Amino acid sequence: QNWEARLLLERSCAVKCPDIATQLAGTKKVQQELSRMGVLEMLLPGQPETVARLRATFAGLYSLDVGEEGDQAIAEAIVAPSQFVLKPQKEGGGNNLYGEEMVQALERLKDSEERASYILMEKIKPEPFGNCLLRPGSPVQVVQCISELGIFGVYVRQGKTLVMNKHVGHLLRTKAIEHADGGVAAGVAVLDNPYPV
Fold this sequence. Notes:
- By secondary structure, this protein is of the alpha+beta class.
- It has 7 helices and 7 strands; from the N terminus they run αααααβαβαβββββ.
């Protein structure tokens, strides 16, 4: 039903925010495909330095499609669950699976085609730092934290003509290191401000 509504919108003359191509470009599956060897080279021909700089920022993203590659990714994650995160094709916090919960899900999914609706990602391990977390109605917590920086951009095009593509802001979410998943709305993270050094 959601996809039928989306198809109706895409066929209309209405301004789409985002249009289907832009929405799909941000999905985890597309991110995983972009990380495959040869894809960036095809999209950025003759720019090996740019490709190398981009690829250096990627965490490992592994397909769980049925087949040898997916079987190998599942086996590696079951053996070393602390190194991976299992991500469904959903946005928002609280959907990712870690540790023993991830292992149980992989054991359940490993012989099912449903596994293709997930990707396995190398776990990013940022350097923790001390910070104060302040939430309404709660005492201040001084704890070890990690942060995630999101960059907002505006991208507008008319047909194939680029009208605008620029940075318009950021959001820094900070949470205590004991929380594996969850954002501000879930009550796990707090809004923060970057302090450039």
